[in-house]
UniProtKB/TrEMBL annotation:
Domain GMPS ATP-PPase: 195-387
Annotated binding of ATP, by residue: S222, G223, G224, V225, D226, S227, A228
Function recorded in the entry: Catalyzes the synthesis of GMP from XMP.
Chemical reaction(s) catalysed: XMP + L-glutamine + ATP + H2O = GMP + L-glutamate + AMP + diphosphate + 2 H(+)
Enzyme class name: ligase
Pathway: Purine metabolism; GMP biosynthesis; GMP from XMP (L-Gln route): step 1/1
Protein name: GMP synthase [glutamine-hydrolyzing]
The UniProt record lists the keyword Lyase: no
Active-site residues, record numbering mapped to chain: C78 (nucleophile), H168, E170
Lineage: Bacteria, Pseudomonadati, Pseudomonadota, Alphaproteobacteria, Sphingomonadales
GO cellular component, one term: cytosol
GO molecular-function terms, A-Z: ATP binding; GMP synthase activity
Amino acid sequence: SILIIDFGSQVTQLIARRVREAGVYSEIAPFQSAAEAFERMQPRGVILSGGPASVVDDGSPRAPQAVFDAGVPVMGICYGQQVMMQQLGGRVDKGSAGEFGEAYVAVDGDCALFDGLWRTGEQHQVWMSHGDHVAALAPGFAPVASSKGAPYAIVADEARRYYGMQFHPEVVHTPDGAKLIANFARHVCGLSGDWTMAEFRATKIAEIREQVGSGRVICGLSGGVDSAVAAVLIHEAIGEQLTCVFVDGGILRAGEAEQVVGLFRGAYNIPLVHVQAQDLFMDGLAGVTDPEAKRKFIGKTFIDVFEAEAKKIGGAEFLAQGTLYPDVIESVSFTGGPSVTIKSHHNVGGLPERMNMKLVEPLRELFKDEVRALGRELGLPDVFVGRHPFPGPGLAIRIPGEVTRERCDILRKADAIYLEEIRAAGLYDAIWQAFAVLLPVRSVGVMGDGRTYDSVLALRAVSSTDGMTAQAFEFPGGFLSRVTTRIINEVKGINRVTYDYTSKPPGTIEWE
Ligand code: XMP
């Protein structure tokens, strides 16, 4: 495995991705706990991330000395390169100007990172983002690539297998960056690149058994992919010691509850409590129009219902969650000393603190697409695993204004038609997320000989890679007219349909 030491760069997660894409397992540890992680993992290589600090400043973070003492290969990126130079006897100067954005490096030497990739004399595009720069190399290092602003764009000490680069190979703006990282992982560290989901599954099953012993586990199912994959994996590990709780607040899409219940009780034979909490949710949402108030009410009510069910089941000491890597990754804090803050996600959170249970989170190290791959490995049907993301607060945040049973029903019908047409056109997998939003606006229309005065529906579909940014999806000609006609003809209560072309930013994907 490879240990990635995080110095607080915004893109550290991408390093982990690139390493895993090369078929090598990796974990990220914040620099404060990197020494323990290094000891525990005994990695075959270490990558030092970028970060916002300046190595010249007193008290700026360092890599554990054990990393250099162990004789494993090390690759430093940006701040990571500077830290390595500083710790190994070179010098870093504070930059006055710096270099940001696209740059070109000239390859002036050779090193193992370039195997089968770059040759002397070539120029390659990279993504630079740095203020400080290396002024004097540590003993043993030689420059192998340079740019206008960075004479030491890449430096190498082949004998010790230490590499440093001033630019960011992990971002897509460095087109060959993934290959440089793969060369480090495979050629330099000698890792075989055969890390697979099958291996992950076996390892996790052993870990879950070890952690849980003969204890009981309860798992909240949201209806989404993550909690479902977590539950199936845990069930494979401990069987009937797991009970799933599925809280149905009436804010799910058409057929969703049936699908989850059918899959768990039917296909997997996993004990499942299906809580019909529609009345509780709908009564509580009456009169609530503020988006944050809706979110808060729904989050709190989920917890209340879940907690009550957990009490009924009794004796469970563990709580399972489908938490993913991007949800839990520890962000490195520079202001409050060596403290780390966990990024809070607008999810069905807050359960653990209050319930005083031990957490089982087998997906903590995975990215969304890896969870999907694991789901397929576990035999979950493709239609389930490949589903678009769906927010915890469900349809309630797709009904601006007051949420009622009737409006949920109208939206469910329209949304189902939209998704059915998208699947029929073979576009589902090309879209990150598609859904309908029922607006609190009425418009005048004419149907047959009569006047109508009904609701307006907005359709949304976006392309995205991670949900952080998004662009409106461009449907082929005729598609939106077809969907519009079907919705207006088939769904009572809607007489006008619009398409939302807003990107994120400045919009968000959901409307509330
Ligand atoms: P926004 O609307 O912030 O959404 O652009 C980004 C992604 O997150 C999803 N989303 C949520 N997921 N609980 C979730 O589990 C939530 O409360 C929540 N709110 C938004 C959204 O659907 C999109 O994929």
